[in-house]
Amino acid sequence: MIDYRAFASAAFNEDVGPGDLTTEATIPVEIVGAGGVLAKQDLVVCGQDLAAAFFEVVGRRYGAVAHYEPLVPDGTRVEEGTYIASVKGSLRVIVVAERPALNCLMKLCGIATHTRTFVDVAGEGLRVVDTRKTTPLWRDLEKYAVRCGGAHNHRRGLYDGVMVKDNHISAVGSLTKAVSLVRASVHHLVRIEVEARTLAEVDEALATDAEVILLDNMDDEMLRKAVSKARGARPVVLEASGNMDAERVARLAEIGVDVVSAGGLIHQARWVDLSLKVSR
Amino acid sequence: MIDYRAFASAAFNEDVGPGDLTTEATIPVEIVGAGGVLAKQDLVVCGQDLAAAFFEVVGRRYGAVAHYEPLVPDGTRVEEGTYIASVKGSLRVIVVAERPALNCLMKLCGIATHTRTFVDVAGEGLRVVDTRKTTPLWRDLEKYAVRCGGAHNHRRGLYDGVMVKDNHISAVGSLTKAVSLVRASVHHLVRIEVEARTLAEVDEALATDAEVILLDNMDDEMLRKAVSKARGARPVVLEASGNMDAERVARLAEIGVDVVSAGGLIHQARWVDLSLKVSR
Amino acid sequence: MIDYRAFASAAFNEDVGPGDLTTEATIPVEIVGAGGVLAKQDLVVCGQDLAAAFFEVVGRRYGAVAHYEPLVPDGTRVEEGTYIASVKGSLRVIVVAERPALNCLMKLCGIATHTRTFVDVAGEGLRVVDTRKTTPLWRDLEKYAVRCGGAHNHRRGLYDGVMVKDNHISAVGSLTKAVSLVRASVHHLVRIEVEARTLAEVDEALATDAEVILLDNMDDEMLRKAVSKARGARPVVLEASGNMDAERVARLAEIGVDVVSAGGLIHQARWVDLSLKVSR
Amino acid sequence: MIDYRAFASAAFNEDVGPGDLTTEATIPVEIVGAGGVLAKQDLVVCGQDLAAAFFEVVGRRYGAVAHYEPLVPDGTRVEEGTYIASVKGSLRVIVVAERPALNCLMKLCGIATHTRTFVDVAGEGLRVVDTRKTTPLWRDLEKYAVRCGGAHNHRRGLYDGVMVKDNHISAVGSLTKAVSLVRASVHHLVRIEVEARTLAEVDEALATDAEVILLDNMDDEMLRKAVSKARGARPVVLEASGNMDAERVARLAEIGVDVVSAGGLIHQARWVDLSLKVSR
Amino acid sequence: MIDYRAFASAAFNEDVGPGDLTTEATIPVEIVGAGGVLAKQDLVVCGQDLAAAFFEVVGRRYGAVAHYEPLVPDGTRVEEGTYIASVKGSLRVIVVAERPALNCLMKLCGIATHTRTFVDVAGEGLRVVDTRKTTPLWRDLEKYAVRCGGAHNHRRGLYDGVMVKDNHISAVGSLTKAVSLVRASVHHLVRIEVEARTLAEVDEALATDAEVILLDNMDDEMLRKAVSKARGARPVVLEASGNMDAERVARLAEIGVDVVSAGGLIHQARWVDLSLKVSR
Amino acid sequence: MIDYRAFASAAFNEDVGPGDLTTEATIPVEIVGAGGVLAKQDLVVCGQDLAAAFFEVVGRRYGAVAHYEPLVPDGTRVEEGTYIASVKGSLRVIVVAERPALNCLMKLCGIATHTRTFVDVAGEGLRVVDTRKTTPLWRDLEKYAVRCGGAHNHRRGLYDGVMVKDNHISAVGSLTKAVSLVRASVHHLVRIEVEARTLAEVDEALATDAEVILLDNMDDEMLRKAVSKARGARPVVLEASGNMDAERVARLAEIGVDVVSAGGLIHQARWVDLSLKVSR
Lengths: 280, 280, 280, 280, 280, 280
What we know:
The structure is a homohexamer. The first copy, chain A, has helices at 4-16, 21-26, 48-62, 91-122, 139-148, 166-172, 175-185, 199-206, 220-233, 246-255, 264-267, and strands at residues 32-39, 43-44, 66-70, 77-78, 83-90, 127-129, 162-164, 192-196, 212-216, 237-241, 259-261, 274-279. Chain A is α/β, with parallel strands linked by helices. In chain A, helix 4 crosses helix 10 (246-255) and helix 6 crosses helix 7. At the C-D interface, helix 1, helix 2, helix 4, strand 7 and helix 6 of C face helix 1, helix 2, helix 4, strand 7 and helix 6 of D.
């Protein structure tokens, strides 16, 4: 439930500042134009509502109207050469809205497209999720792009899920005590995840009531042992993390973890190539 | 002159929301810790002031103090294994500030590092610049990272430089008329750049008083001809653009253009790998 | 992790608008005074940091200094006649900060004090929690006051915990389907609570993997049956709700539910009586 | 002239944060529903425009529409069992807007209802007014609720009326001097009120040109004497204050004061009981 | 009680936008300088705190320090050639803060100086006041400048004083009814002013309990008659208005009105001439 | 591309604060009225869109509608007695919007009208421009008024044009070095202007590649010499400044400078006289 208008308004202001020197001098607000957004590579679509918001925001500022009409919904795979949206209305609005709208689309489609490559190899039983390694001020949008790419989200931030890590453990003295302190503190709709880096820590985590164990930076062999321990002990969600790439994700399903988290879904994605072709 | 505190404050709020469930339950604000930010790859440093602002902002919110001390200035190339900063103070502040501060550093160092690969091959006479293809809400920061990588900036936005493109030209009827309309409209400290895609357009642009010509999407041969025409005509700044990579940049200096613009300095950069190691 | 300065600044602006007509005409900023905040009834203290923020904010606006010094920490029970804080510094600042600071203290202590009456009868095994029935714009502060009164919080809002209610169930067709849809949608650190109003619904809820069941508006007898069913079925957190008062809370521990939620902790609380006595 | 949309937007954000985990997973935006707001006790209605604003704000955010239609105007007394409003439109919007809208209605109706009990006993000649003891960030709304309950408002804040109290008097040396300093300072459309706690202070106040005298914390006998003095001296508005309850208000009209101020109209009010019944 | 930092921050952002191209390229932040603000004409000083705030705000943004030290307080008349302030510190901060700080000083001193010419001829018994004809977003500052010029303020806005004008009267049917409706509506610390344009209206106004009568656009003769009527009737404040200049103000004291209001104090004032001389 | 709604909203809030005491008590929102804005002197129109925005903003806040319809476009000269706009709709909205709307119109028309007197004598070849001496928070509006008066703008702020002044030069040691430092730093669409106060400085400036030279505070004779030097040297834009009035501007065209800048276009302008006549 992102406030697309607010985001588009801030992004538009950043680009246009006190005015577009070129366009305001050459394109009267009443000239109309039309065009389309062209995918110049295979990609997964993401960002249609945000793109549309730019045209609304810019139009409102200029007292004119241009519409952005999605031709395929977010989450769709399209091939190079597909028009993913059409635009129509005041040419000035279209020309001014173009760059920030495309910047958003190219970035978000980039993440959805990159994420898709992970999801495609993960199979049914393995949930691919993102991390808190997101572009500051873009978290909700990037997490949405991850969903468009077919993956799931991890917690949104520090406030809606517990992750007990080494710093927390060392501050209170033991993993067990850390979990128990947090349990007493948080509300009863929050699950606790605890990080384990060794099999001993897996044992210790299993002895708590933490619902999720993060198996961090373990090689395949250690992962297998950890999974085996956990499955023999009690119901628990097992998450693997640490420099994941698509190849390794493919093996993790077989190893038997439930979740794999990869910051790279977002921060290793590059923008896809889109262009807006306009004619009067 | 970026307002780092304001940016850090917004980014911190995005991550922490109404509070850090884990850390506030386990790490009292008065426990102290220390650590350092480690480069896990070769990179160009960028973002030290912003990173420091996170520690100030988080500290102020918790009524505690932790300092981020840069060990090398922005713009420095460092090797894998170098500590680029030290942190010291309230462990809670350090643990909470870590993720958003690193997210910024990893992104900005990524751009500076990627940009450096372009600048290194461009040589003295060729100015490498960015474009308006920047992450919305990050423009000033990303343009700063480009400078840390040794390159220059193009105009910041639509308001501080003129770029006459095909849509503007077609709206008024001719390149010549577009340039003249804009000249009459803008203040006298603004230069005009006009886009040319063919040699005929180069001729037409040279016949105006535009100070800069953008040679867009030309191959090397056409570029050479355009340069030759322009040098024989009048003083003018020549800028080349269109899917630039480092290899091509290396040739452009020899061809004789003055400026090469590449959006990819920013949008094809990936985050570098940094980690914050903390101990009590 | 509430931003007390921001809250105090907004609340101060509401009261002072463009200026204090009376005080600015009569009390020069350099006259000093001192005083204390007196409890005029038995109460549980809450709001010391927020109160202090008012004196800081007002002082900064007038270019003068007055300090608010808590004499007992939040969460303490004090008797009528106790001074809970002292103030010292610019008399103008003290006089202007007094009303909004006391308004906050009287309201927050009121909630903490009222909450305490529930907690005192609940005993060890029963967790008393609040609901989303909070004063808009005051949620974090009121939930903090509930903790100062010795109780716990429920989820903060719609974003950090799942509560499946009748509207959700009827929209998808069945309780079972609703739980399963939500499980697929939310991240893996979120627990699901589902509302049950009949024993049949308790059965249905027990057949899902919802971690928490809300036993809503059941009388003691039905509650006993629901508890019995659940304890015989699987591990699950049982929460009772519906027009709770202290008397009934006392019985719930014995009935065996884990959690009791009561909006009245907050919305049936009244302000306590405090006064600020100042002398030059 | 409260900005209801702005208030509703802030209050909605507080509750929904980055999204409603439950509703967004279960209720598609295009399903429609209808329902009504039911008074579960006798009450005085207040807050219809604010409640309506929530449905508008939530609808706009979800790109859907739900209308809140008041069935009785603010200020109306209704009996238990009355529907005070109907809602119709996107079920998702209704379900998400419900809680914050009801929280506002229950609080504001609570104040109006409680205030009504004072006004009913005060009779024609006595003006019942509130004080500056209001919930921070809610002043305009609470003062509006007081009017809906049939009472009047005192000054809104420190900026639109003068109240000379003991701290002001002691800072300048005398009541007389304080009034005269303020008169010289304020604009000529402001009246001055001065606090008197003894009959001697009443005499001193009557000797100034203060238009209003606050008879603070006097018992009935002293009030009678003060009224008698004042009526024999000059035209002046007499206000009584100090821990007022409805019983005492009934006596004050007979004693002959013009105004009675009671913070408790607001801070001793409790939420009324309302529920929103929805069906598809 | 103006928030000078907030105002200076907004005004600085307007001027500097994303950065000072010239100064940031030429003046390192650590070079220091000093200088003074020179009055290039006789004037009344106003704006010292606001000017100082610019140096604080700019310094904070650049991580450097420069101080603005007033040499004479606001409200002082100084002769051409007087230094009204000294500045010292980071040369970059001084150079960047100069223009917006001077813009404010020149404007505010201009109003104070112009106002002084009215006050000087008004004499003791006549209160010269401003109106609501102020520069939008500058009201509090301009009203402060009027006070620095020795005059007083009228109400600040529509919310802190009542002015019944012809539109209000015609909407309700009569002046008498309008006054009575407003009296019932406003709190008891508000005075009512009513506009009278004829002697008949003066009579009607005198028959109400309005505390102030505005004698609008009357010539001297009619004013004399109005004053005579009023003084024979009851205590009331008489205000004259309508295209006042200094010459006419001199006559009004003798005619016997209490207050003269003139929008021109503000909107007919011009900036005074100040310059900031800096040396390293 | 000014955000008129945002400006009008802020200006309206400043005036109305928590409400219009008089109008809300006397004019129900559903009474309608109509009227017109009358020019009470010859003037150049400016501010129609901003004026209209006030009626929209006030209407939206009161849930009512009143329209402001421009009768002549901005930039038009009209004679005394002309109606420049009509208004129609909710009388309450009209009465409340009147003052802030007129304040803006009177100020902006004042600047346009004053500017016109300069432009009328400047002739074709001389560009009259403003400076950075603008009313803080009003820069874009005032610069727009200057354009409505027939003149041009100088740079908007410190960020969109370079002006090398004495402080910059003395900080780096020489004019030549200052220009070269800035050139290396700024993007390639920015022109550089350098200030020259003596003929020697003109020579030095001509030896750089600065595109514009500011001839500051030179008398006519020195200006002639400077122009002669420059025209004999290289293409360059020559700007004259320093206490310009209309008489001197008339001579400058003949002397041969290209641009004359005058802060007085804005800060020496006075409000024009307009009134809004309304009837029910």
